[in-house]
Amino acid sequence: MYSHGSESLINQAREIQEPELQKFYSRLVKLLQVKELSHETLDSLQRLQLILFANKFTKILPAELQQKLLSLLSSPAEQLQVLGSAVLRETLPPSGQELNFSEENLSQLNTHAAALLLSQARSRADLSNLCAQLIRSLESRPSEGPTQSLMFTLPVLNTVFTLSPECLTEDHVTLLSKKLVDWLRYASIVQGGGASSGGFFTGPRSRQPLPIAELDDDRSEVEGSVVSVVSVTSSSSRLLPPKERLREKAFQYCQRLIEQCDRRAQKKADSELQKACLVEAVCILDCVCAEDASMVYRAFPCMKALFGRLSSDLSFARVLLPIAQFYLNHGEMDTVDCERVWKLVFGQFPAELFNDAFLAYELLRFLRLNLENIQSRAPEFVQFFPNFLKFLAWDSPAVVEDFVDLLPSLVTTGTAVELLHTLLDLPCLTATLVLQLRSTCLPIADPNSRGLLSLEAFRNPAFRGLFLFLLRAQAGSGDTIDRLGTLHELLAEAADWPRVVRCAQTVPVLLHVYFNTVVKMDDRKLLAHLVLVMLERSSLLLRIPSYSKEIHRVFSCHLRRLCKLHPSLVVDQSHELLEFAGATANVYNKEEVYTHVVWVLGEYLSVSSDSRCSVKLITSCFEALEAVLFEITSSTPPPGTICPAPRVITTLMSALAKLASRSHDLIPRASLFLSKLRTVSRNGSVAWCADEEDLVAIVTRGEELWSLLKAPGVAQSVLTPPAYVTTPRWHRDTSVAMPLQLRALTSLTHSQ
Description:
Residues 402-748 form the AP-5 complex subunit zeta-1 C-terminal TPR domain. This protein is mainly alpha-helical.
């Protein structure tokens, strides 16, 4: 939403009257007639843009003002170009002037004029006309080196073709191919017109074209700068059709550019330019090889050499990713060993550059866009999930959407358990990454590092193994560590670090994605193991405010879901489930999980769910739950805790009644307890329930269950109904009268 000040300005702009607006137009025309443009002119242009933006209806400016604004597009001051283009995009051009750009205007095209051109195209016909004009302007240009505006014309054409591919005719393709071939031939001989050095008020440099190589903008900035030699076009190349010639010339040009980038840059600006050129050159070679597979064998020696030269320098990571894309796309065409590439991309990059936001974006995008190809060509990438999660641990809000897409591909039978532990310990990984950076930045003797107990622990050899496990690059060294409680104590002070808190907020989202994926695998042995992990880890979490509650909520949701899909899991893990349900302490500190564990025991511990369920097992479960319910309803809560939630008590009561209905020998014990509970509550307030309304609800539930147990046959039908009752399909069953009755009612209630 807008701030109060911004809303005030927008309201003023909306409320301006037409006479006042016409006066404003006239004043602005006079200001634009002055050669030296003042701050008042800039302020007036900004105000005009706001007025036009805030108005509901698009306005038509006076013709004189329109022409003045168009002239700003070729102003040496970029700020005036920006403002002129912004204003014109908010207006309708005068009648008859739509897209009326002459050859002279097109020759002066720049970024802002190009944006205006595209904004005025209101139909595919307009785009076709614009395309034709731009291509005619290219046709009339000399081949000996493209002019300065070419860098703006070609992107506009690319945008037009993207929006409306049908605008690109075969004649256009032929013409563009021929022109691009000619420009590439001369690209290394003559430098194009000078570009603006940046800033709103900086004009273009007025240098004459000089013989110069692609990367040598300033001969003093690059070591060993020499002029590139244009290779002589072979007679066989001249005989190729235009598209094939362009492909060949682009291939040669990119290889020449890669060779030039072998020179060591002396300034950071030149180094960044080299990296950008290498990225584009590799990407173009990738596209060329995708169109003509025969070029793969010619390109790979260059790619191998480039990878070998750059792989030891991680500052070239942004270049190495396109090289990895090339290997991924064309590695099968040539017998190349890609293992070194994957170890670098999946291993070193995340481990050492996890805090590089640009690399995180590019690498995760590389994984998402090529996921199917990577799974077939480099299936070992799954083992690097501890490394990939470092990006998430470091900057969770920025990459969580990427991991929502990627996480399902990382869940396999072999990685599922370790991945679950890793997700739960993600805040610990965040804290460890912070400590790792601080440890390298702050000397051991630095007084600023004192007071951080976690940093001292990170440097302590006795705890080094705990942190090294979190920082591991690959899976397979164990699902988790034995001393998780110790690790959580060492990182206790990190619980309120902003980066750790933000990471903790993303874990529940990813856990839902994880469990949704695991369920589809339909591996009962794995699911049984995950039930144990949930019970165990419910008490082993980093103590971050509300983190445990959120994780318990996720566990509860998916524990119930897993047991509903596979009721036999309850019998498989009955020992561990009963042990968890029989611990009274879990009532107070794991209420959500405990409630659902009790519910699944009462719901699915029956012969109808699993034939292995015995009377002995039902009795053991009944006795464990009975002991807990008796303890919490006959004593005050432990110090530092609150009264158990009414839902826990009613769930325990319901579970006891369900179990008793399946083993009638238990009915007297259940009825006796429920009657005692009713008697105790009639005496007034009780220590285990602070709210009177909650107590009434508990007693009412107890009376309902007690009444049901008086009729064991009815109790079993109500408390453990058969499947055909809980999931009725009578309206589709052709053997009963229900469908006929429904059709009859439908015909009576709907008019013919």
